């Protein structure tokens, strides 16, 4: 007697379990894969054959590897707990966003495997003080100030350089274009990769900066948590206490009080502040106009009434008038993200090193970087040209003085 019906039934059962664990309904799976709901039902009941392509699509949708659907795979308890926490955090999100975040989870598994195969140890973050939901605001601000000093930042702005700073500290940063709302970013404490951040790249660039600082706050203050999906710009009544703490930390990290006062003094800013003053501050510190207004209000530099009046201004028009360059995201343009912006530099380097060593094929390297072969090779030629230009640069010997 053929074992095929039994094998199909077992596979269907594992697909159902993976779907339920990932928080998808049969209807959502059908919409995501272009199937009918009865077809999905037949697959789970073992009544319909599953080919290799469909198996891969199902696995990717659920944030699993194909072989995990073919036979039971025992996950390390810590990994299973983190994935369970992640799925719980993203359960309220739209289907398309959950799909992308599940693919992000698979990327982390690839990341961990590449590190092992290339003999790389995950970076170790310095120990940090553990904070609780009851920790007072002044303690959070003091910790952010202390960290700025420890990193040698003083009063200087971080702005767009924050991503490089975080990755230099061993915190991988992924960018993914999700729906503009509700998710701002994601902190995940992966047992094999360590603390890792995901930022919603559909936000305006200045909001991405604050999201990065906010997620870094979770790394620093709430490292004991498995996963935190952040809705930074949600109504205050919907905000958890740890989210409020992360906002406090991010505000001090990006907009240090003494730094703001010093810049205002150098600008010889008007009293009360004019929109031009706020825009200059915003651009200097690399944050959004509204974030700067909220910070100025918290510092009591402006009143509630002044904040409301300044909120009615168009920061883009003011910035244009002052001669600042306008980022495309500020006028609603969403550009496709190249892979070298989507993924951390360490991850890209690991993929290319594995390919150069012959540990993976060219096709596998392209798959891991989510690009086609033409794009991958164009990127390599671009790197080679950049290196050549640097080596051939002719610098006069007398330039050193």
Secondary-structure content class: mainly alpha
Strand content: 5-15%
Low-confidence stretches: none
CATH topology descriptor of the largest domain = Arc Repressor Mutant, subunit A
Number of strands: 4
**Through-space gap between termini:** 88 Å
How many alpha or pi helices?
A: 20
CATH architecture of the largest domain: Orthogonal Bundle
Mean pLDDT: 89
| Percent helix | 55-70%
What does it look like?
The chain folds into four domains: 1-74, Orthogonal Bundle (434 Repressor (Amino-terminal Domain)), CATH 1.10.260.40; 76-254, Arc Repressor Mutant, subunit A, CATH 1.10.10.2910; 265-313, no CATH class; 339-392. Strands 1-3-2-4 form a four-stranded mixed β-sheet, with helices on both faces. It has helices at residues 4-22, 26-33, 37-44, 52-62, 66-70, 77-90, 95-117, 137-150, 162-168, 205-221, 241-254, 257-267, 275-285, 289-298, 304-311, 315-322, 339-342, 345-356, 362-368, 373-392; strands at 173-176, 185-190, 194-200, 227-230. Helix 7 (95-117) packs across helix 18 (345-356), helix 14 runs antiparallel to helix 15 and helix 18 packs antiparallel against helix 19. The chain has 401 residues and is mostly helical. It contains 20 helices and four strands. The N and C termini lie far apart (88 Å). Strand 2 (185-190) and strand 3 (194-200) form a beta hairpin. The protein is globular, with a radius of gyration of 24 Å. The protein is 58% helix and 5% strand.
């Amino acid at each position: 007697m053929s074992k095929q019906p039994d094998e199909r039934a077992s596979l269907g059962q594992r697909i159902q379990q993976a779907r339920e664990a990932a928080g998808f309904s049969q209807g959502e799976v059908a919409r995501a894969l272009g199937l009918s709901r009865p077809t999905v039902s037949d697959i789970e009941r073992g009544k319909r054959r599953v080919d290799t392509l469909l198996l891969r699509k199902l696995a990717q949708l659920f944030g699993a590897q194909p072989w995990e659907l073919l036979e039971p795979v025992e996950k390390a308890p810590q990994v299973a707990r983190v994935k369970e926490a992640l799925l719980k955090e993203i359960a309220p999100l739209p289907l398309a966003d959950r799909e992308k975040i599940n693919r992000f989870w698979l990327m982390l598994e690839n990341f961990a495997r590449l590190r092992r195969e290339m003999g790389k140890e995950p970076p170790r973050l310095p120990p940090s003080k553990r904070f609780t939901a009851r920790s007072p605001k002044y303690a959070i601000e003091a910790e952010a100030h202390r960290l700025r000093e420890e990193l040698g930042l003083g009063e200087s702005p971080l702005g767009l350089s924050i991503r490089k700073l975080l990755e230099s500290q061993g915190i991988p940063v992924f960018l993914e274009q999700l729906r503009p709302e509700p998710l701002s970013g994601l902190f995940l404490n992966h047992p094999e990769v360590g603390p890792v951040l995901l930022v919603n790249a559909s936000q305006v660039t200045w909001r991405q900066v604050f999201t990065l600082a906010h997620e870094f706050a979770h790394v620093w203050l709430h490292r004991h948590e498995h996963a935190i999906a952040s809705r930074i710009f949600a109504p205050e009544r919907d905000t958890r206490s740890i989210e409020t703490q992360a906002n406090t930390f991010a505000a001090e990290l990006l907009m240090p009080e003494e730094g703001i006062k010093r810049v205002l003094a150098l600008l010889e800013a008007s009293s009360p502040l004019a929109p031009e003053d706020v825009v200059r501050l915003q651009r200097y510190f690399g944050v959004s106009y509204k974030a700067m207004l909220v910070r100025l209000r918290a510092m009591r530099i402006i009143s509630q009434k002044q904040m409301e009046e300044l909120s009615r201004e168009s920061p883009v028009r003011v910035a244009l008038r002052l001669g600042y360059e306008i980022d495309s995201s500020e006028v609603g343009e969403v550009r496709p993200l190249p892979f070298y912006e989507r993924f951390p530099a360490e991850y890209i380097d690991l993929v290319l090193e594995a390919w150069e060593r012959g540990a993976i094929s060219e096709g596998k390297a392209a798959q891991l970087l989510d690009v086609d072969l033409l794009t991958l090779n164009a990127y390599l030629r671009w790197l080679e040209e950049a290196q050549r230009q640097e080596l051939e640069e002719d610098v006069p010997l007398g330039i050193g003085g």
